[in-house]
Amino acid sequence: MRRNVMNKVWIAISGLIARRYRTVIATAVVLTVVLAFGAPLLQFETSQNALIGGSSQTAKDNAKYQRQFGGEAMLVLYTGPVEKMFSTQNIAQMQTLTRDLEATGLYKYVLSPLTALQFAQAQLGVGQTIIGAAAARHPADAAKYGAIVTTESGRLAKVTGPQQLDNPAFVRYLLYDETGHIRPILRDNFVDPNHAVMVVRLHGNEAMAQMGKATNTAQKLVAAHPLTGFTALATGSPVMLKEINDYLQGGLTSLGALSLLVMIVVLFFVFRVRSRLLSLGCVVVSAVATFGIMGFIGLPLNMVTISGLPILIGMGVDFAIQMHSRFEEEAAVDGSPRALVGRVTQHLAPALAIAMLAAVIGFVAMQISRVPMIRQFGVMLDIGVAVIFLVVLFVPLSWLVWREHRKPTAARGRRPLEGGVLERGVRWLATAVHGSILPVVVIAALVVVAGLFVEGRPTIQTDPEKWIPQSGHTEKSLKALRASTDTSTELDFLVEARDVTATPVAEWMQRYASEQVAKHPKELLRATSLGAVVTSVTRTLPGQPEMQALDKVAPRDVRIAFLSSDHTRANIIFPIANIPLSERGKLLDEMKADLHPPAGVRATPAGLAVVGVALVHALQANRTEMTFLALGLVALWLLLVYRSLAKVLLTLVPVLVAVGLSAIVVYATGLELSPLTSVAGPLVIAVGTEFAVLIATRYVEERERGRTPADAVRTGIVRIGRAFVASGLTLVGGFAVIATSRFPLLRDFGIIVALNTLVALLVALVLLPPLLVWADGHPRIKSFSPGPDLLGVPTEPMVVTPETETPTGVTV
Question: How far apart, in whole angstroms, are the C-alpha atoms of residue 57 and residue 507?
Fold first, then answer.
């Protein structure tokens, strides 16, 4: 029953195209124009929500932290003798720069070297109060506190001139402790005698466009307010995120244009038929429609979906070439447009439907990923493939029918395309191992087993710094920052309590911070908080009287950075060394394990480092399962179509070998997986399944025409050889275009998947034909036709006459 229904559907489609080809083309144009209005609605997403999802606990904690204490920080590195930074002119410049930055409203706070020394100067006014409060809480240490007062008073008494920041002697007193080293509490702003840092904290949870605006503004204002005797470098994680976002918006166009150029070259040299560039028209329609739909439904572009355009272009050309090639092949038999459309639709459309649905089903596996941008990538590919199939089913045939009515294919053009170099090469590949199938199968099995063994072993690179060009200006600036400061990022802790200045809470915060720095001296450079400032003065744990006294004299920006106005939240900042994310994850786990806050106190980690660690865990959680699920879903679909486990296994042989080789290549070359390369498995499965389905279906068709198994390979497979190789090369070209990207995130993905696609193409050509011949002679397999109830794939035998090698009843 369902078979009859599907046959009627294909017949209706072919009749519509044959009779209403102008209407079909006009409809496609109108729909494309309408959907094009959705493209401007596309949003570019590079926030943490694309990495770990806004509903995860990590994202919620990070969002809460950023609402209170701001987002990522721009760091301005000043290089020069820091003692000379506080000339009258430079002080005025820093004051003006701070005012101009704050006036934009783009920043949470600004902590300049001037702010740091102003805070240190203000501490002199409450120093006695703070030390006195500490002594009252610890009377047994009275001698220690007395020694601190004596030492600092004696050093201050030696300062000549006024206690002002334009006095070099006073600046030296504030900068250096009694040992002659920069005071530890000032090292966030004064790294060493020749480097100072300004911290410009952006507002939290900002949209990428706003973050980019803040980044540009900060860099321009820093350049407009130079300090005499100093060079300034404004960089930090916002600059890196901005570069990624800018590339997303510009890279879409450049990658798409380069992909089209590659397709034109492939079509020109490999696919030598009339109207050879028709496939590109189909691709343009498909791409516009896909991105328009994405815009209308709110599916964003991100670091993964940006790569979808070259992939969709490759798959679009692939499907269109198959349809176009079959039309030209049938034109060599009978030039009647209606008959041409009927035969193409009857024989090829069901096979493409099987391949398309296999790809869509395989991409569904990406929905189990814990990384939102990978799930969005899967949705994008499903939409794109479905659109491509609809476009390829109607547009090329309608255009070709129109062409045939205007200028029919000349009689001399009606000959099978079997004699070229490419066809001979395909014939050689398809018959190369015909007599050695057993050794080849054994080798293929070993490849699959080895691939499964090493699957999941490669490391995953989720450090955003490794996603950008390593020789670009941004990465160079980050390296220069690290070379001078030993850090370019931080690990933050949000502490929440009824009153974080209360003595038990303040003591616990400082004790925990000091213990962690001592426990992880290579990873944690220091810990900065308001309590740490108290400890730098008293040499003991802070109490509530000291915290409140310091809070009263702290500059506004310092208070905003470390303490909420209602004293219910506090901030601990740990600048961290440049360590891999795997080590950051271990560090974070150990620090969380050591968290034992007092009752009623909650402490949660936050910051870009925490987001990166969460991304590592999300990718590692089910990357392998995603590949296996895609394989399982495709296998179930093919089992539903073919109704035979043996036939399913035959079709999946090239897929299994390609997936196995993918894992082996990645492992052997030491390539690091990124969020993008982690989706290579479902992509290779989709592509390999298409290759296998098309070869198997054409083999069945030739057998049903009465050919022997060997002739079905030599004739049928070879006849589609040029289209098969051309479509395969367009897919490889689409992935190879991604490999030309300056961004390692995209480049590594393009290299891996292009190589795997080429492997899947070769394996399908070399291994599948002899396997089909072997299976055809097996008593339990024989016919490779799909089940009788699905897709209406024709199974009626057709007798071949030796003279013409064309179906009986067709006039040549």
Answer: 27
